[in-house]
Amino acid sequence: PPSRGAMTGGKPKVTVAIVSFNSAEDLPGCLAAVAALDYRPLEVVLVDCASSDDSAAVAEASTPAGLPCRVIPLAANLGFAGGMNAALAASDAPLVLALNPDARPRPDFVTRLHERVAAHPELRVGAVTGRLVRPEDERGRRRLDACGMHLTTTWRHLDRGSSRFDRGQFGVAERVFGATGAATLYVREALDDVAIEGEFFDRKFHSYREDAELCFRLRERQWEVIYEPHAVAEHRRVNLPSRRRVMSARINRDSLKNRYLLRAYHQSWPNFFVTLVPTLWRDLLALGYVLGRERSSWPAYGWLWRHRRWILERRRYLRRRRTASLWEIEQWFCRRGLPL
Fold first, then answer.
1. Hey, how many other C-beta atoms are within 10 angstroms of the C-beta on 77?
2. C-alpha to C-alpha distance for 133 and 100, rounded to whole angstroms
3. Which DSSP symbol is given to 267?
4. Which residues contact 88 (CB under 8 A, 6 or more apart)?
């Protein structure tokens, strides 16, 4: 295989990996923003998950001039996880920027992220993410979208600052638990280290919480995730908890299933007892909501039961590979960030 240490002018190559599904409206703007990035060497790998809106054709027509670009159409919708795995399989770059079609990075976005990685040779950096903001509203105000990811005692993984008005908060580079797959630079060595049977993102998660699950694996193998506030990207973001009632039944069902799958993979027994009361309360609320208002998500519980033996085997495998201490993981349930 080609060397993953390939460099040009002393800088490692970056692959911008984009997964599209009915994203024809967003792709021209996204690819234009990628073309404006000032980092080189740079290439684009775009995987289309069997879109019905000619996304692949739109991507071909919008490929950035002067940048190597490959469009890979899939025969089925494998979700963000499966699509990103296909993009990573087609890349030999030592750095990979996962980018959603509805994201618009500023020209210095990748440069800033790369500089942050290079500034910390003392750390085992696996990923670095930037300051994601929502588009301006009618009054010219912006809300934050994500400034890294943090965990709660109810086993929610939340984007720091999400939906708050941008007033310059989260202005310091920090270590954070994790990062959203919407716009994060991953170190390929770290992805190779945590991959399972050649998969980087777990396809069982399909299209929700797969980025948080990857962050758990990175943390369990002692890879750091860093937040860089000066790397800014705009992210429109469609799937929000407040929009659950208008989201597709498939997305809502996956969201519920993946909530439990994430815990089954990664929750330790001490954490189970410490977080039992808040998580049990939230689980009961979720069950009541499904029974009363969202019957379409009921099959998620059946899926978990049918796959229980496979889930337990995956859990045992992950625990065998874990090199981090218990505290190195548990601390993130009570901390939103740590200094560099």
1. 17
2. 13
3. -
4. 17, 96, 188, 191, 200
